Amino acid sequence: MSEPKLKAKLFIHAAIRRCSIQAIPAVVAHKGDDDSGAILVRVLQGGDCCRIYAQVRNVSGQLGWMCATGPQSVSESRAEAYVARARDVDGDLWVLDVESSDGLAPFLEPIFPG
Asked: Name one Pfam family in it (predicted).
């Protein structure tokens, strides 16, 4: 059985707070449904490099993250195109932008291999 999922708005506020504590800039780029919106995290690494993480469950039902854009960083324009396509499919989608040179954020755990 899988563990329960936090409401999207609560998760987003907690993620921003966790980033703030570590002096990592994080902002909501797109607000989704407060209760059940899916969440994408766009990690801006600088130098036109990004990674996008999507919240997923593994085969045993454990909630975690997967790099939706693949193992390598992508350009900001490619990341924006991915986000735009995802928003076209899901109007309730949250998008959280995090600036992190190492491509990670303190709340992205566990990360599942793609």
From this structure: DUF1491
pTM: predicted TM-score of the whole model, two decimal places:
0.91
Q: Which residues are CB-contacts of 28 (< 8 A; sequence separation ≥ 6)?
A: 12, 16, 94, 95, 96, 97
**59: amino acid identity, one letter:** V
Report, as an integer, the average pLDDT of 59-81.
Answer: 93
How high is the pLDDT of residue 41? 97
- Ordered by start, the domain boundaries in the chain are 8-112
What superfamily would CATH give domain 8-112? Protein of unknown function (DUF1491) (3.40.1530.20)
- Interior angle at CA 81, CA 11 and CA 63, nearest 5: 30
The total of other beta-carbon atoms located within 10 Å of residue 57's CB is 14
The candidate with the shortest Cα–Cα distance to 11, out of 35, 27, 29, is: 35
Q: How far apart are CA 11 and CA 73, in angstroms?
A: 25
